[in-house]
Amino acid sequence: MEKNIDQIFKRLFGTSNHAIHHYHCPGRLNFIGEHLDYNGGSVMPFAIELGIDLYIRPNQEMKFRMFSSDFEKQIILPSDTEKIQYSKDNGWGNYPLGIIEILKQKGFSFDGYDFYFKSNLPTGAGLSSSAAIEVLTAFALLDLAAEKIDRTQIALWAKEAENNFIGVACGIMDQFAVAMGKNGHLICLNCETMDYSYVPVNLDGYSILILNTKTSRSLEHSYFNTRRAECEEAENELNKNGNSTRLAHADLKHLDIIPSENARKRAQHVISEQSRVIAMKDAISGDIDLVAGLINASHLSLKNDFEVTGEYLDRMQEIALRQDGCIASRMTGAGFAGCGLAIVENEKVSSFKNVFVEQYKDALGFDAEVYTCNPQNGVHKVGEI
Ligand code: GLA
Q: How far is residue 254's CA from residue 13's CA, in Å, rounded to a whole number?
């Protein structure tokens, strides 16, 4: 592998005396707490094995030259460009460029670097590939510049890039999870205060699987911003008396005062999901039946009240729950397409994988993928070549 990277650099960027630095950033799976981060609630994600590798080397040319093993489009830009603009032409490159622009706005400046990204994280599949590439780029550049690494700060800057450069009004969950993940643990993050704790995963005898429906979300961004606006509408209605309670902490008893039915349903999901996260914090240390109940209830709430599951994720959940040994399943991430999770008895994992993929194909006509997953550490340096 290392020899290979050396050759790739020689071919793409020429020879150099500088070392190639290798960084890795995982994707994330949100276990529970969906659409809560931008509503002042708490979430429980963790970093996963699938992720993005960045091989990066300084160059003498005051240029950022970026290649990806997955996309043909290469990006070349003077590293002293005054203001980097979002451009459709830059495709995937907008994610690393967006975070670089935010870092520049914070006062950092960078010499030239050659970047080679290599990923096994499916894009647009609800596993936070965009957060991963943003956090990875920021972490590597700051580390190489010998700047102090504050992971929470990197996550906040990556969110700023997503909100202001890419134009998706996401919350902080994804960036925080991929920056702060910890081996063997879920992260419990209060998105209002940014307080967090690590909760060990103890699913005695059961495994968490990622179910990839192999569908991606072309409409996700517009739906995402609409859902966010509906939540804001609900929060404003509930606070008309002068309060400033975030939606996740509002009282279900007051929902009747929200005139719009859609806004009312979004609030119903957000408030009930917050109570499921609180219950999960205790359940995860050994009450497997409660864990399963909360996961299944979360999917139903996302289906009926938040209305972001859609055909593929619903079929995924139905088919998963039909299998011997599967006690829970739900969508994960923004919704509409992408991935979900299942909790399956350890002994049944291998038969689950086969039968799930077969039945999904019978129902939908194309192959799903199933990955085993264990919580991992967040972004880190792997070494030098
Ligand atoms: C996307 C966003 C997150 C979060 C989830 C839904 O992944 O990027 O901020 O809102 O959807 O929980």
A: 61
User: Which residues have CB under 8 Å from 7's CB, separation 6+?
Assistant: none
| Residue the block writes with tokens 């739900």 | 330
| Whether residue 174 lies in the annotated active site | yes
Catalytic-labelled residue, pool 111, 174, 282, 324: 174
Q: What is the pTM of this model?
A: 0.96
Name the pLDDT band for 218 (thresholds 50, 70, 90): low
Q: Kindly report, residue by residue over 86-96, the tens digit of the pLDDT.
A: 999 999 999 99
Residues sharing a CB contact under 8 Å with residue 68, sequence separation 6 or more, in sequence order: 92, 116, 117, 118, 119
Mean pLDDT along residues 256-271: 98
- 201-373 to CATH, choices 3.30.2320.30, 3.30.70.890, 3.30.70.20, 3.40.50.740: 3.30.70.890
Distance (Å) from CA 52 to ligand 1 centroid: 19
Distance CA 40, CA 377 (A): 25
- One-letter amino acid of 329: S
Q: What angle do CA 167, 268, 337 make, to 5 degrees?
A: 45
Q: Which atom of ligand 1 lies at the shortest distance from residue 43's CA?
A: 12
Q: Return the residue whose CA atom lies nearest to atom 8 of ligand 1.
A: 170
